[in-house]
Amino acid sequence: MRRLGLIVVIVVIVILGISGCTGTPATTEPPPDAAALLIQATDNILAVNALKIIVDRTGADYILATDIGSAIFNRMEAQYVSPNLMQAKAKVTLSMLPVEIEIFARDDDQWWRLVGTKWAKQTFLPGFNPRALLTQEDRGLRAAFASLENVVLVEDTTLDDGTPVYHLTATADGDKISWMMLYLVQISGSTNIDVYIDKEKKLPQKLVVVQPETGTETVKPTTWDMEFYDFDVEANLQEPADSEVESTPEATADVTAEAAVETTTEPATEATTEATAEATVPS
After folding, report:
1. Please, which of 96, 148, 212, 233 could form a disulfide with 170 given CB 3.0 to 4.6 Å?
2. Of 82, 178, 94, nearest to 131 (Cα)?
3. How many whole angstroms separate alpha carbon 30 and alpha carbon 199?
């Protein structure tokens, strides 16, 4: 009986060994078409009801010409809630001092302020309406993603947080890409773009936009690092209360400029005098 059991075990081992040698190899899924993947990702992001965006600028400075002086744009954090609300905070360097500008928009109504001061109910982004971000064919994110050309799938990779993504490269006219930054900054000229799309959710997670023409022998070109996240996560927008709004908007520039100097004690560690792009903020 023991001998029979041993024979059975040997036969099973042989069969498993043969199966392992002759088994059908695992199939490899073909890579997606880059253009089709970008269209799918665009459709998916346009279907969300809320999202957040972070924009970081490195390399050559980007200059905002404002009523309170020329400011170097450094960073922006924004959140959008469908269909018509947006709130953003931009970190800039003004007269060698770090300053934060906050913007709130509801349809065509806009408020803005230097953080720590009262709001002014004034147009800050001319022509901007939050509804345009996701709902219009020729504006917003649809126009930005549709403007990408020479789209190529480079590789499968992972982001720093471990998210598996498809890495695409593309080129585009900077003016269209500005929609991704809510037109707080207005990019000009040709750009080179890296797009990272979540492999599971098929949503854009990150874009890196480089303006080659802005670089010099000593300064790297202006580079915009954009992250999209918290899709359909409940937002925490804080609409300006009437008590927080300046009653005389015309005086806002003088008041906020003075407040910025009084409340800021440490100079920015990085500021250059060379302007590589210009945008206009209305009075």
Report:
1. 148
2. 82
3. 13
Q: How far is CA 191 from CA 127, 213, 278, in A?
A: 24, 9, 16
| Contact assessment for residue 280 and residue 65, using Cβ atoms and an 8 Å cutoff | yes
Contact 92/64 with Cβ under 8 angstroms? yes
Say if pTM beats, i.e. exceeds, 0.90: no
Whether 20 maps to a domain, the answer reads no
Work out the number of other CB atoms within 10 angstroms of the CB of residue 146.
15
Q: Kindly give the pairing relationship between strand 278-280 and strand 63-66.
A: parallel
User: Is there a domain that residue 167 lies in?
Assistant: yes
What sign does the dihedral 89-95-96-97 (CA atoms) show? negative
Query: By percentage, how much of the chain surpasses pLDDT 70?
Result: 75
**Number of domains the chain is built from:** 1
Q: What are the φ/ψ torsions at residue 272 (nearest 5 degrees)? A: -120, 160
Residue type, 246: E
Burial of 135 (0-12, 13-18, 19+ CB in 10 A): middle
Q: How many CB atoms lie within 10 A of CB 172?
A: 21
- What's the half-sphere exposure (Cβ side, CA atoms, 13 Å) at 169? 5
Range of the domain at 197: 34-280
pLDDT at 220: 96
Q: d(Cα 258, Cα 165) in Å, to the nearest integer?
A: 46
Residue 133 lies in a domain: yes
Helix (H) or strand (E) holding 234: none
Instruction: Tally Cβ neighbours within 10 Å of residue 43.
Output: 12
With CA atoms as reference, report the closest residue to 207 among 224, 219, 232, 190: 224
CATH of the domain at 191: 2.50.20.20
Residue 114 in any domain: the answer is yes
